[in-house]
Amino acid sequence: MSQTLEGLRLWVTRPSQQAVGLITLLNEAGAEAVAMPLLEIAPAADPASLVAALANLAQFDLAIFVSPSALDAVFAQLPQWPKDLPIAVVGPGSERRAKELGVEQIICPSSQFDSEGLLLEPAMQNLQNKKIVIFRGNGGRELLPKALQEQGAQITLISAYQRQPPHFDLARLNAELAAGCDGIVISSSEAAQHLFQLAGDGALQALQSRIYFVPHPRIAESLIALGAKQIELTDAGDNGILRGLHQHFTHPR
Hints:
There is one protein chain. This protein is an alpha/beta fold. The protein has helices at about 15-30, 45-55, 70-75, 90-100, 115-120, 145-150, 170-180, 190-200, 205-210, 215-225, 235-250; strands at about 10, 30-35, 40-45, 60-65, 85-90, 105, 130-135, 155-165, 185, 210-215, 230-235. It contains 11 helices and 11 strands. The longest helix is centred in the last third of the chain and has 14 residues, at about 235-250.
């Protein structure tokens, strides 16, 4: 797909730590990829609970990581992951990061990359009385822990990091809009909320008229509720998003 996105100016709104791979792919395809992180990742507000969980990993039968940020936060505190402790993740980005970190036993959905998809995996059945730790950010969806508890699993929830609003302001947003924007990649509903809250009245119409590329229907629904008119659903992961962009810009409907 080299140079297939030549001349396009595309915003990548992932947290800075997660955006590098996609930005590299977009630049290699000829686009100008603009880092516009709509979420910032910060250390956990209560690090003591994370430290305690990591000190007692041997008690768990399974560890679930909801994002690459959760993996990075946990592995920053560990010299090595226990080889006999499997992990579960919800998408290809987390799976790739887990492999980079040396994890050998990884459960990941084969197609539906979300909590619902993970719960359908054969390895996520028959978990009664199993001890499971879930590493996530502050808050988050409750579907996964609730469903596992209903199976009879014993769940420990650990906030491994915090998601915070972006550091850039309305002046930066207006400047980037004025410089041109051919598409915006949004990877979470929370990020979409931050973007439109930041806009206020002045930039709202400009944002609503832009085209958004999202890897999950739930993000598309959030954008529709915010007034976005053009939304393209892509596959998950960096390569999936790149394929979606390529399809849109080289094979317009």
